[in-house]
Amino acid sequence: MKKKVVVGMSGGVDSSVAALLLKEQGYDVIGVTMQIWQDEEDEIVEEHGGCCGLSAVEDARRVAQVLDIPYYVMNFKKEFRCNVMDYFVEEYLAGRTPNPCIACNRYVKWESLLKRSMEIGADYIATGHYARIMQLPNGRFAIRNSITARKDQTYALYNLTQYQLSHTLMPVGEYHKEEIREIAIKNNLPVAHKPDSQDICFVPDGDYAGFIEREVPDRVPGPGNFVTSDGTVLGEHKGITHYTVGQRKGLGLAMGHQVFVTKIRPNTDEVVIGEAEDVFSSELSCDHINYMSVEGVPEPRRVFAKIRYAHQGEWCIIEQTGEDEIRCRFEKPVRAVTPGQAVVFYDGEYILGGGVII
């Protein structure tokens, strides 16, 4: 009997080819687009596209027709609002820089979609991520780097659970992006030349502070002071939600040379300013740990770590310092360690685990 797989179809070329590849491999494929957009301003959704707009639904539906597979739209607005948008707002208000794609992956694309897919009799869910899932000799499932470093998306998937991984397929991780486009062209998929979406889907204009002001107008922090680390006031800023650690543009400070945000203090509404060297750190601590290739790290261990999606990574020693806390000491200082972002630990090609930087 064929194994049934629900493919999360975003209307892009990667998830479309994922559905095609799985059908060719003999799976019983069902296409699903997750409706997560909160308001129905058609022209805005249409203009920006992304992975959740109305254009995504139409593109995915056209692909499903070409592939001759069943296709449905499932409503996940409530889950997306709670686990992604509200989290995004609360993190910025607390002076941290969130990663909404990681939250969406764990709690919407996997937890909610997987639950609903299993309820309709599916064996797996699948996505178009550039990553691979392997079962290791120790029995645990782990995310493995895709074969193309340029498109590798493993960082944003570190938070998936063993159960989620054991019921997930990622066929695109075995291919380069150029190969995926070629497969789409060869099979006449209508999204073969569609560009990749770049922005956070619910903030298509990139104005995070403006989004927060519209969401919680009565809670937006007002202006505060730019200060040095010793408390010297340098000027006034627009509100802490406008800034993130490592930022140098848009500060509006006439210092005569480049300066950077080194810390955000939500309790006093202060944004701390420093020099280029002040943005580098040799260690960090993280919590909300998710172990993947191992069950824990009882002894200090040397691993490769990434502190943001685009970070090239750096070697470090990790040590468990609490039930849900790891300290990470880097061999070379890393730039802009940012509270709220994820730090992901790699053991060779596999994700060992990760956590949220505190």
Structural class: alpha/beta
Q: Could you name the ranges where pLDDT drops below 50 across 5 or more consecutive residues? A: 42-49
| N-to-C CA distance | 48 Å
Query: How helical, in percent, are the residues?
Result: 25-40%
How would you characterize the largest beta sheet? Answer: 6 strands, antiparallel, barrel
Give a quick rundown of the structure:
The protein is 26% helix and 29% strand. It has helices at residues 13-24, 42-48, 54-67, 77-93, 100-119, 162-166, 177-186, 208-215; strands spanning 4-8, 28-35, 71-75, 124-126, 131-135, 141-145, 168-169, 224-227, 233-237, 260-265, 270-274, 280-291, 301-306, 314-322, 325-335, 342-347, 350-357.
Question: How does this structure look, described?
Answer:
This protein is α/β, with parallel strands linked by helices and about 350 residues long. The chain has helices at about 15-25, 40-50, 55-65, 75-95, 100-120, 160-165, 175-185, 210-215; strands at about 5-10, 30-35, 70-75, 125, 130-135, 140-145, 170, 225, 235, 260-265, 270-275, 280-290, 300-305, 315-320, 325-335, 340-345, 350-355. The strands form four sheets. Strands 12-15-14-13-16-17 form a six-stranded antiparallel beta barrel. Strands 3-2-1-4-7 form a five-stranded parallel beta sheet, with helices on both faces. The longest helix has 20 residues, at about 100-120. The protein is globular.
Write the layout of secondary structure elements.
Elements (H helix, E strand, L loop, with lengths): L3 E5 L4 H12 L3 E8 L6 H7 L5 H14 L3 E5 L1 H17 L6 H20 L4 E3 L4 E5 L5 E5 L16 H5 L1 E2 L7 H10 L21 H8 L8 E4 L5 E5 L22 E6 L4 E5 L5 E12 L9 E6 L7 E9 L2 E11 L6 E6 L2 E8 L1
Parallel strand pairs: 1-2, 1-4, 2-3, 4-7, 8-11
Antiparallel strand pairs: 5-6, 8-9, 10-11, 12-15, 12-17, 13-14, 13-16, 14-15, 16-17
Helix pairs in contact: 1-3, 1-7, 4-5
